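Subject: Interface between my chains keeps coming out wrong

I've been trying for a while to get a sensible model of this assembly. When I model each chain on its own everything looks fine, but I need the whole thing in one frame so I can look at the contacts. Pasting all components below, labels as-is. Any help appreciated, I'm running out of ideas.
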Amino acid sequence: MIPLTPEVVAVLVAMLQALVILLGAVLLGAVLTVAERRLLGWWQDRYGPNRVGPAGSLQLVADTLKLFFKEDWIPPFADRGLFVMAPAIAMASLLLSFLIIPFTPGWGVADWHIGLLFFLAMAGINVYAVLLGGWSSGNKYALIGAMRASAQTLSYEVFMGLALMGVVAMAGSFNLREIVAAQQGLWFILPQCLGFATFLVAGIAVTHRHPFDQPEAEQELADGYHIEYASMKFGMFFIGEYIGILLVSALIVTLFLGGWLGPWLPPWLWFALKTLVLVMLFILLRAALPRPRYDGVMRFGWKVCLPLTLVNLLVTGAAILLATPT
Amino acid sequence: MELAFYLSGLVAILATLRVITHTHPVHALLYLIVSLISVAMVFFALGAPFAGALEIIVYAGAIMVLFVFVVMMLNLGGAAVAQERAWLRPSTWLGPALLAGLLLGVLAFDLWRGGGGRAIAGELLTAKAVGMTLFGPWLIAVELAALLLLAALVTASHVGRLASRDGAGTAPGEER
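Reply #2:
Try treating it as a single job with all components included. I did that and got this:
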């Protein structure tokens, strides 16, 4: 039996926090799959899934049971190792990024001074899930999906990093806690509105959500890179997408909307409310926007977003230099 | 931290060996990604997390995506595997491996002779410190690198433009 010294208690509390955050992210991601379908139905003037349980509340249980009992099929023409590895990368890289997010002053897993860079690194790794999943399936549709994903990645990854550098320059740190602390007077969404707009675009592209879901366009690619996946392997891609939405929403809240800061309400409630609003925005975008062709997405990335972020960075730098006394 | 350094160093070496000896191009590239990530871990263990994070973002996250993309598009099958296997005959790699091993011996000897006092210090190098060094004493080098990259960019754009004017076919939507 280990004695309960303050250090041991601190370690146990930290481990418990990490576990709660991990499970919370996975569970919320799973709940979102149903919530999205309900909301989409509502916005598009139809019912959505409303049969299982009162008002469709048990749909999640039904979906999970169905996914678990499906045959876990690996196509004989697939590259076995990579085929199994791809969904794991998809989910793990996004879940790992929750490490750096400070939920409230007391909650959060890691407090690194390279915090933001860790997210960018994980977003870079996350691409391999789509690439390898698409290639190892040995299917032409999946390969085209993977091809589109890599082309799209190269176009948005550059300006995603640049969009965040304005925030980093204003806060003077990559550490997310310090970035939140720097927003005490004014949320960064106002001085960094260009950064916010471009990062929102890049964030949607990271999660491969509508209108950037060309890699899995149902109509022409029949689900793209995960066409050959079944059972929980498909489930991991599916829930990974929603974990990505949660992650990007939480990150935008932390970087641009003041994190847990806000009057009257407790910090965790502020964080949850702001994140919820952004998640709704993600779902509303899917309900409202058509899907552009993927060369259009690439042109938008390189010719509109990249120059915008560069201008934003230039103006931010000039403003900071003017404001600091020499 | 020393244990982390040696472990990730070992992983880097093993993964790099597999890059060379693996006959399947896509799998070899995956080993290269693992090798790059473990080099990033070496940076972390040495107390330079900024360099480590950039290593993952730039090399593992962006450049290797391009590599994997191209190799996937070529879709090399059994012929490529056979060719790789033919290249891995001892008569091909024995000579270079001997010479490289000799150089490795010289390096190891040099490190050993200068030994002591070179243990991992464990001090943390922050992003701010890196930026101050880059834009302080090394400003000229940074500017020169930027010029070089600009030249490469202009060249690439020029080469790409010529190819499409020759009537090799314009991409749909480009003629607007």
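Reply #3:
Confirming on my end. Chain A has a mean pLDDT of 83.
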